[in-house]
Predict the structure.
Amino acid sequence: AQTVTQSQPEMSVQEAETVTLSCTYDTSENNYYLFWYKQPPSRQMILVIRQEAYKQQNATENRFSVNFQKAAKSFSLKISDSQLGDTAMYFCAFIPGNYGGSQGNLIFGKGTKLSVKP
Amino acid sequence: NAGVMQNPRHLVRRRGQEARLRCSPMKGHSHVYWYRQLPEEGLKFMVYLQKENIIDESGMPKERFSAEFPKEGPSILRIQQVVRGDSAAYFCASSSLSGAASHEQYFGPGTRLTVT
């Protein structure tokens, strides 16, 4: 079975500091995609960052970056210079697929509730 | 370019009534996914549809739940004879399934169903 585990139910960080959210996954697939989604109090699901398993280089989007360790099946999210607007639930998600496309559904972890304190 | 649209945003039903949730995918997207989020949980896959076809319904309960995505109009998730345990947020996502971004799913704002 393919699973995604987020071991930190809640975390907090001071504004302007850096925080890392953990995620591990289990799959026998060789090609897949990993995502971090943000869900603020509005409950809208917002794609933060994605990583393709066949790419060695860690993805980066402005203040958000990932540490992708394929052998360890680990996919952590680092948020630098945390802002109050980063307060949200963060979900790690996985989808199996071949290069260029997939037809599967996303498998989500249970989420980490991040609070950014002023 | 409008995003994924869902309506209603909030829906209250009494036990035994029917709930109909609608989802209009992003322009150019022909693939729709429905997910359910129970309180304090992550999203769980329910069903994946293309126009006029159900591709994968492995996450959808066999009874009372059905989904469709007609040639014209939005995708509909229908829950008959609702029970309290159906209270949840229901999210729709869409994708284009073409090109390098074909694995990306874009989510609507969700419908919060409350069963009283």
User: Anything to note?
Assistant: The interface with chain B takes residues 4, 33, 37, 42-47, 50, 91, 95, 97, 100-111 of chain A (CB under 8 Å). The CA atoms of residues 6 and 110 of chain A lie 6 Å apart. Chain A is about 0% helix and 50% strand. Chain A has a mean pLDDT of 91.
